[in-house]
Each structure stands twice: as structure tokens, then as C-alpha cells.
Amino acid sequence: MLKRLLLSAAMLLAMFAGTMPACLAQDLAALRSEHASAIDDLSTFRTNGLQRPAIDGWLEGGEGQQFLAQLRAADPAAPAETIYARAVEQLASGAALPTVSPIDAPLLKVVPHGQSVSPYSPYFTTSQQLQNGSGECGTLADCFGLPLRSEAPLYDVYQVTPNGTVTVFVSPVAPTEELGGLVRRKGGALQYLLPNRKLWSAPVLVGTITN
User: Fold this and answer.
1) Which end of the chain has fewer CB atoms surrounding its CB within 10 Å, N or C?
2) 129-148 tens-digit pLDDT
3) What gap in Å lies between CA 189 and CA 131, rounded to an integer?
4) Of residues 194, 202, 211, 203, the one with CA closest to residue 71
């Protein structure tokens, strides 16, 4: 499995190499210089995803209760209002209500080269989604709606493995915007929400890809 994932990372490296136009790279460099503070603290980053009424309604149903149960199991000492706020934040990152699916295969996450994966981050995807993005978006950042702070010319690819068969929540990434709309990402890639990372292994570095 590790060998196959490393090969997939190599394929992704080839597909994404050189996909960002020089003019776009120059524009982003200027924005990064001018708005460094706002980019670093994410103060202008906005997700144009699910709205609160749709989220509240879904959380009242059976699938939503499964989602909340995983969040509670991940942090049993957290107050109920904190658990609910986390649920809203995670679900709002999607453009549609999630589908619920059992999975027993590894999932992947990309982070800027040299950074580590937070032990709490719920946002993962598949190698197939990373490959699909090469044909549908100009950059990984566009496909996955990344903020400028998380965009990089080189990404490390980490893998997590479920402890048996685990229920995941799959939704398309919502469009995002930053710096008052100066930077917009279309999203669209499928994200796999893992509300309880205790059900998964520690992240393991399996490859590196370009943006």
C-alpha cells in the first residue's frame, strides 16, 4: 500500500508541475506582501458553504447524531455547546450536506512542505480526488478551497489509516474567498470529514507533490 501511495504521489507531482501561470504567481506574491498579517491570521478568509438552517436540520437527524457522537467521543470533556460549534464549523466547509459512508481504506491530507498535520484536523481526502483535481482546477489550492496561508509550491502528503471500518462524512468542498474577494477558490473536490481522529492512526508522510 505504501508503495502504491508513493507512486500516486509521483504521478500527482508530474500532473501538477507547472500548472500555475506566471502572471497569477506574481499577483499572489504581491498580495502576500501587501496583506501578510491578514493572510497569517485568516481574518479575511470566508467559506461560502452550507448555511446554519441546513446544518441544524441535518444534525437533528440520525446521520447528524452520528456526527455529533463522534465529536463527543473525540473530546468527552468538552461542553455540549463547544461540540455543536465544532460540528457547524466542519459542516459549513462543504457545499452540500455530507453523505455517510463506512470506510476501511487509508485517507490523505496535504500540508505545506515541512509542516505537520494537526492531531485534530478533520479534513482529509483520497488519492483519486488529488488526481482528479489536476484536470479540473488550476491548483490544489483552488480544488480544495485553501486559504493563502495553506497554499505552497510544494506539499507533503500524509496518510492516516482507520482502526477497522470507520464511518466518514463526505461532501464537496465549498467555494472560498479571501481578502475581500481578491482571492477566490472554486472548491469542488470531495473532502472526507473525520470528526473523531482517535479512530485513525497517526499521520504518516508518504510523498510530496507540487501545487
Assistant:
1) N
2) 988 755 567 788 999 999 99
3) 10
4) 194
- CA gap 143, 118 in Å, rounded: 21
| Whole-number Å distance between alpha carbons of 198 and 120 | 9
SS3 66: helix
The dihedrals phi and psi of 51, each to the nearest 5 degrees, come to -95, 160
C-alpha cell at 64: 447528524
For the whole model, what pTM was predicted? 0.84
Is 39 in contact with 178 (CB distance < 8 Å)? yes
Facing residues of 154 across strands? 210
Report angle CA 99, 101, 105 to the nearest 5 degrees. 135
Asked if 173 and 144 count as a contact pair (C-beta separation under 8 A), the reply is: yes
Sign of CA dihedral 112, 78, 75, 97: negative
In angstroms, rounded to a whole number, what is the distance separating the alpha carbons of residues 49 and 194?
18
Q: What is the pLDDT of residues 78-124, one digit of tens each?
A: 999 999 999 999 999 999 999 999 999 999 999 999 999 999 999 99
